């Protein structure tokens, strides 16, 4: 079934159902030996993020269980973060080089590609299977616990607190970006947008003709900020690498290309975000409450 709360079921039942579905799919992906291990890592980490978004939506009603489960899911995903980052850097590097680098820059940057590949090999070094096995054990335990989760509220009352908190944090993070646009503030804003986007997906069924396009705008905004962050991480990695002096000019020129690309992404994302979050949190929550009642 979709990652969505059905109006015909209780919120508690929906939360338990969605959690079990996502965790069961993650376990199945790990157990499927035909799937590429790097794709599996990417997919199961996404499922952890979706689950953390789910429990954030009912955070006040979930009580102390929220903190325990959020920590458990965060720590489980953390087992795979270095493995995923090492693969992402190569993917981002190849994409950016193909799209924005000149032939001379591509030739000069071959050495960086080799260093990134060696770095991934060092990080992986037989760790993939071990990390996935431990990750599987942890999420299997989380799946067993999810069937006993209890909410202290029902209906929209179980949702409104988490919905409002996430929307408020996304608006506050945008304000931080406007005051000081840095890699840190942009990344924090992206994280808040992602969680808000999960909440919109979970509630899409109450008014799909309005919430579906809104969710798509959030997805595009999150992707743009994600691209910006990936470039920033790659810039830091390249800066830390020792490269041959004869290639320094081309590598510095490629660095300028990356900086221009980041500026373009930010110039598009920030005004879009201002429009998305122009509505105050109280008004947004009230509007969705009306959809829920209808």
UniProtKB/TrEMBL annotation:
CHAD domain residues: 8-293
InterPro entries: CHAD_dom (IPR007899), CHAD_dom_sf (IPR038186)
PROSITE patterns given in the database record: CHAD
Gene3D superfamilies linked: CHAD domain
PANTHER family, per database record: CHAD DOMAIN-CONTAINING PROTEIN, SLR1444 PROTEIN
Stated name of the protein: CHAD domain protein
Source species of the chain: Roseimaritima ulvae
């Amino acid at each position: 079934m979709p990652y969505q709360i059905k109006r015909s079921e209780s919120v508690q039942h929906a939360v338990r159902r969605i959690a079990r579905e996502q965790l069961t799919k993650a376990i199945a992906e790990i157990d499927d030996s035909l799937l590429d291990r790097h794709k599996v890592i990417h997919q199961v980490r996404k499922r952890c993020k979706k689950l953390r978004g789910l429990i954030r939506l009912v955070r006040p009603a979930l009580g102390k269980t929220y903190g325990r489960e959020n920590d458990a899911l965060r720590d489980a995903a953390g087992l795979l973060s270095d493995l995923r980052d090492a693969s992402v850097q190569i993917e981002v590097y190849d994409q950016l080089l193909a799209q924005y680098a000149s032939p001379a820059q591509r030739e000069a940057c071959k050495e960086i590609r080799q260093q990134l590949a060696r770095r991934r090999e060092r990080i992986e070094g037989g760790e993939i299977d071990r990390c996935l096995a431990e990750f599987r054990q942890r999420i299997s335990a989380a799946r067993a616990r999810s069937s006993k989760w209890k909410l202290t509220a029902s209906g929209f009352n179980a949702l409104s607190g988490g919905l409002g908190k996430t929307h408020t944090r996304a608006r506050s993070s945008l304000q931080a970006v406007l005051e000081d646009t840095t890699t840190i503030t942009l990344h924090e804003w992206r994280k808040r947008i992602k969680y808000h986007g999960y909440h919109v997906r979970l509630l899409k069924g109450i008014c799909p003709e309005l919430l579906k396009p809104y969710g798509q705008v959030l997805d595009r905004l999150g992707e743009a900020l994600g691209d910006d962050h990936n470039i920033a991480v790659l810039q830091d990695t390249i800066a830390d690498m020792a490269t041959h002096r004869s290639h320094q000019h081309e590598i510095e020129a490629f660095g300028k290309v990356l900086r221009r690309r980041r500026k373009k992404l930010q110039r598009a994302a920030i005004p879009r975000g201002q429009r998305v979050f122009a509505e105050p949190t109280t008004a947004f929550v009230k509007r969705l409450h009306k959809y829920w009642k209808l």
